[in-house]
Design a protein that fits this description.
There is one protein chain. By secondary structure, this protein is of the alpha+beta class. It has one domain: GIY-YIG endonuclease (3-Layer(aba) Sandwich). 39% of the residues lie in helices and 29% in strands. It is built from three helices and three strands, in the order ββαβαα. It has helices at residues 25-32, 57-70, 73-83; strands spanning 3-10, 15-21, 46-54. Strands 2-1-3 form a three-stranded antiparallel β-sheet, sandwiched between helices. Strand 1 and strand 2 form a beta hairpin. The longest helix has 14 residues, at 57-70.
Amino acid sequence: MEHRTYILFSKTQNRYYVGFTSDALSERLRKHNTNHKGYTGRVNDWEVVYFEVYASKQEAYAREREIKSKKSRSYIERLVASAG
Protein backbone atom coordinates (compact mmCIF):
# COMPACT_ATOMS: atom_id res chain seq x y z
CA MET A 1 0.00 0.00 0.00
CA GLU A 2 1.25 3.45 -0.87
CA HIS A 3 0.96 6.47 1.40
CA ARG A 4 1.12 10.05 0.22
CA THR A 5 2.02 13.41 1.65
CA TYR A 6 0.19 16.06 -0.35
CA ILE A 7 -0.30 19.78 -0.72
CA LEU A 8 -3.62 21.31 -1.73
CA PHE A 9 -4.26 24.86 -2.87
CA SER A 10 -7.49 26.88 -2.75
CA LYS A 11 -7.72 29.87 -5.09
CA THR A 12 -10.69 31.22 -3.10
CA GLN A 13 -8.71 31.33 0.14
CA ASN A 14 -5.28 31.74 -1.49
CA ARG A 15 -4.04 29.13 1.00
CA TYR A 16 -2.21 25.83 1.04
CA TYR A 17 -3.11 22.75 3.05
CA VAL A 18 -0.62 19.98 3.84
CA GLY A 19 -1.78 16.48 4.69
CA PHE A 20 -1.12 12.78 4.27
CA THR A 21 -3.30 9.85 3.33
CA SER A 22 -3.32 6.11 2.83
CA ASP A 23 -6.45 6.43 0.66
CA ALA A 24 -6.44 7.15 -3.04
CA LEU A 25 -5.51 10.79 -3.53
CA SER A 26 -8.62 11.42 -5.63
CA GLU A 27 -10.85 10.10 -2.83
CA ARG A 28 -9.08 12.24 -0.23
CA LEU A 29 -9.47 15.32 -2.43
CA ARG A 30 -13.19 14.58 -2.80
CA LYS A 31 -13.50 14.51 1.00
CA HIS A 32 -11.68 17.83 1.35
CA ASN A 33 -14.03 19.42 -1.18
CA THR A 34 -17.20 18.41 0.66
CA ASN A 35 -18.89 20.62 3.22
CA HIS A 36 -17.57 19.48 6.61
CA LYS A 37 -16.45 21.06 9.88
CA GLY A 38 -12.71 20.89 9.25
CA TYR A 39 -10.33 23.54 7.93
CA THR A 40 -10.83 22.57 4.29
CA GLY A 41 -14.63 22.31 4.55
CA ARG A 42 -15.22 26.04 4.15
CA VAL A 43 -14.58 26.04 0.40
CA ASN A 44 -14.75 23.41 -2.32
CA ASP A 45 -12.07 24.49 -4.78
CA TRP A 46 -9.10 22.61 -3.32
CA GLU A 47 -6.78 21.07 -5.88
CA VAL A 48 -3.75 18.83 -5.52
CA VAL A 49 -0.66 20.82 -6.46
CA TYR A 50 2.03 18.49 -5.08
CA PHE A 51 2.45 15.01 -3.62
CA GLU A 52 5.13 12.53 -2.58
CA VAL A 53 4.72 8.74 -2.28
CA TYR A 54 6.03 6.72 0.67
CA ALA A 55 6.10 3.02 1.52
CA SER A 56 4.90 3.51 5.10
CA LYS A 57 2.32 5.61 6.88
CA GLN A 58 4.98 6.70 9.37
CA GLU A 59 7.19 8.13 6.60
CA ALA A 60 4.29 10.03 5.01
CA TYR A 61 3.22 11.45 8.37
CA ALA A 62 6.80 12.43 9.25
CA ARG A 63 7.11 14.28 5.94
CA GLU A 64 3.80 16.09 6.55
CA ARG A 65 5.09 17.20 9.97
CA GLU A 66 8.41 18.28 8.43
CA ILE A 67 6.70 20.47 5.81
CA LYS A 68 4.35 21.99 8.40
CA SER A 69 7.21 22.64 10.83
CA LYS A 70 8.85 24.98 8.31
CA LYS A 71 5.90 27.36 8.71
CA SER A 72 6.91 28.79 5.36
CA ARG A 73 4.71 29.56 2.40
CA SER A 74 7.81 30.13 0.27
CA TYR A 75 9.10 26.62 1.14
CA ILE A 76 5.77 25.13 0.06
CA GLU A 77 5.76 27.17 -3.14
CA ARG A 78 9.29 25.95 -3.97
CA LEU A 79 8.11 22.34 -3.54
CA VAL A 80 5.10 22.98 -5.78
CA ALA A 81 7.28 24.67 -8.42
CA SER A 82 9.72 21.75 -8.38
CA ALA A 83 6.91 19.39 -9.38
CA GLY A 84 5.82 21.52 -12.32
